[in-house]
Amino acid sequence: MNREQKDYILNFLEQGVRFDGRKLEEYRPIKVERGFSENAEGSAKVTIGNTEVLAGVKLSVDEPYPDTPDGGTMMINVELLPLSNPNFEPGPPGIQAIEIARVVDRGIRESESIDTKKLCIKKGEKVWSILVDICPINDDGNLFDASTLAVVAALQNTKFPSYNGNIVDYKKKTKESLPLRKLPVSCTVIKIDNYFIVDPTPEEEKKIDSRLTVEVEEDGTLCALQKGGDKPLTAEDIDKMVGIGIEKSKELRKFL
Q1: Residues 149 and 32 sit within 8 Å (Cβ to Cβ)
Q2: Nearest to 205, CA basis, from 188, 185, 217, 224
Q3: How much of the chain is helix, strand and coil, in % rounded to 5?
Q4: How confident is the model at residue 43 (pLDDT cuts 50, 70, 90)?
Q5: For residue range 202-255, what is the model confidence (pLDDT) as tens digits?
Q6: Which of 7, 137, 148, 253 suits 91 as a labelling partner, its CA being 20 to 30 A distant?
Q7: What is the Cα 224 distance to its own chain's centre?
């Protein structure tokens, strides 16, 4: 981003508004749609402004990890396609895709959102394994928050397939839902100079000094934090950003 564009953004922030007319702590319109895929056990599409993210859930019966013989497993993958942003390249996941996957994964794990013990079929031998795929179909900024919202909504939408003890019948879905205990959401707060904003556009993301993704449970408990950007944050900055994240999480949670 050239200097003229930076000054253009800062000129608006100094007046307490964004160049798209929003307030500093205002999200673009948000929409959550569940059950868009018949093939997945659970799915959701989240739209934040022009950003669109799909999340799909597949369930399978696998062996548990040695350190958790009586608990189910979960894996989250992110695929950033050139279709959604010309800056994305096909091939193995890059740094951005890996970071998004880890941030979403951490919020769900640290909040203990899923009761993994109830995913155990036979201790040490068989458990349900959850595979979540995240695929942005249009990247217009703020993939962190959109991805978290999409994954949690998809987990809410998930139904177990029919299982007779040996074979999983993916053509038949039961009425049994995932054992969800908590619904974490994330709010990513951006610092540009001395200003703090949420739900950044691509132009604003290019100008960030620092970024803090705040993942919050229903009662306001923090379950994860992820810092990004090149510049450090002071204790005052972190306190301010966490406060914004907790407050805005209440707004995001309404869509779940």
Answers
A1: yes
A2: 188
A3: 25, 35, 40
A4: very high
A5: 999 988 999 999 999 999 999 999 999 999 999 999 999 999 999 999 999 999
A6: 148
A7: 12
CA dist 197 and 74 (Å) reads 32
Measured torsion, CA atoms of residues 147, 152, 153, 158, in degrees rounded to the nearest 10: 120
DSSP letter (8 states) at residue 175: E
Nearest-angstrom CA–CA distance, 31 and 153 = 11
Amino acid in position 74: M
Check whether 183 has a pLDDT greater than 60: yes
Q: How many domains does the chain have?
A: 1
Domain extent for 235: 3-253
What torsion, rounded to 10 degrees, do the Cα atoms 219, 99, 82, 151 define?
A: -30
pLDDT at 3: 66
Strands 126-138 and 120-122: antiparallel
Beta-bridge partners for 46: 32, 53
| pTM exceeds 0.85 for this model | yes
Query: Tokens 């009761």 correspond to what residue?
Result: 115
| Distance of alpha carbon 224 from alpha carbon 99, whole angstroms | 13
215 and 225 Cβ atoms separated by less than 8 Å: yes
Nearest to 72 by CA among 28, 18, 126: 126
Phi-psi region of 21 (alpha: psi -120 to 50; beta: other; left: phi over 0): left
The CATH number assigned to the domain holding 248 equals 3.30.230.70
> Which amino acid is located at 103 in the chain?
V
